[in-house]
Amino acid sequence: MEKEVIVKWKIKENETSRILGLLPELVEKTRAEKGNLAYNIYQSVEDTNVLILHERYVDTDAADAHKNSAHYQKIVVGQIVPHLEIREVSSVKKLY
Asked: What is the pTM (predicted TM-score) of this model?
């Protein structure tokens, strides 16, 4: 069964441009993962410090492999999470 996740990040003031610079590598490596179906990052028009990630994986195992990958640990855990005010992760299921 597919695993779909919506993540909201609110970046601390003055950190947004640095965080945005980390995203191309994260996106490229995540999209290349076995089991990744989609990985898109959106920036709020109203508040440029807010990013929304929409992730889709073939199953829970693929999503877990992403979280345990070297690039996730290095970029997200090591370089992004410490600079967030808010981090909300929601597993969702498509209704329509």
From this structure: 0.95
